[in-house]
Design a protein that fits this description.
Length: 161
């Protein structure tokens, strides 16, 4: 049947929808805005021990990491659901969520901000905020002179003289 294919006269005519004016991508929300939204939502929902860690210069996986605790599995699940809902309402796309069925530890990947919501005992076991807050920008730990090697701590007698 003539005129019914994808390149028919109608598809090429002025009556066809103008796809050139459609936006190529949505407006990108910056990391600070996502962070503020997440922190506000956690405060509203009574999350406990909320910690925000700046990751810029430490890793390329995200700009910020937020770690928070809920009082129970139900509270952890509700915190995570409310964060995801708020992010979606604000237009943040591509949100990934892990751990919702058990709700011992829920991870929300909102691109530039990663959120971990734990039950307190699970948070204490993994202690991820200590792991991420103590690194140097090159990924190493700060250098300290070794007591076992006195020459590293003080100049040699030959150099003093």
């Amino acid at each position: 049947m003539r005129g019914s294919g994808p390149l028919s006269t109608l598809a090429l005519s002025a009556d066809a929808p103008d796809t050139a004016t459609a936006p190529v991508s949505e407006t990108r929300i910056d990391a600070e805005e996502i962070l503020a939204l997440v922190l506000a939502r956690l405060e509203d929902d009574k999350a406990e021990e909320v910690v925000s860690i700046e990751l810029r210069g430490k890793t390329t996986i995200a700009d910020y990491m937020v770690v928070a605790s809920g009082r129970s599995q139900r509270h952890v699940g509700a915190l995570a659901e409310h964060i995801v809902e708020a992010l979606k309402e604000r237009g943040v796309g591509g949100i990934k969520v892990e751990g919702m069925p058990a709700c011992d530890w829920v991870l929300i990947d909102a691109s530039d901000v990663i959120v971990h919501v734990f039950q307190p005992e699970v948070r204490g076991f993994y202690n991820i905020e200590k792991m991420w807050s103590g690194l140097r920008p090159d990924g190493g730990v700060p250098a300290k002179p070794s007591v076992a090697n006195p020459s590293a701590a003080s100049p040699s007698p030959a150099s003093r003289g």
